[in-house]
Amino acid sequence: MEQVLFCRRWLSLEGGEAPSDVQAAIWLDLKRSYMELRPRLRRVYLTVQDLASYGPVASRLGFQVLEDQSVQLDGATYHSAVLDFGPASVDGWLASLAAAELGIEQLSLLDSDARELVVDGARMALTPLEFGVIRYLSTHEGKAVSRTDLLRHVWDTHYCGGSNVVDTVVRSLRRKLGRHARHIETVTGVGYRFRSHPVNVQPTLPAAS
Questions:
Q1: Does the pTM of the predicted model rise above 0.70?
Q2: What range does the domain containing 28 cover?
Q3: How much is the CA Rg of the chain, to the nearest whole Å?
Q4: Are residues 72 and 114 in the same domain?
């Protein structure tokens, strides 16, 4: 079940929402809440009055101002903004921030709304099982997902068939992914893992004699 966090206002007695020690403490507490709610946290909503000061910073963090949702109270304008972490929750958000900072292009292989793979600009239709498997793996990016978990969440909790059906679907997905098939890694004795940026394993060279 996905969760949403609402940050209604951050205020200090002396400075209101202006930068202050109080505000810094509130932001640290908010970040602590981020981490405690992962991987279920999907969105954060907040309200801000000084959009000129906070807009550029919030934009770099991924916040988007909700247009036409501002309200007037006692002569002041209050703006609402949302940060959508995406299906990968806080982990995916942090990875995207680091990638942007390092100039690494983010790879998006799945269009969930269209239920299609996007491979090198080409779109490919997915069967319901293929879509379910790659969506579940991608929303648990970097984590080893067992075949049992895939059977439980993609098929149904009462499925009694063998786990080889999972392997069959993964093989089909890898064929469609082509050169990007390595993004679905096999975890020996467990199941599979999805990585946006697969680890390149260098071959071990024999020691010089």
A1: no
A2: 3-84
A3: 22
A4: no
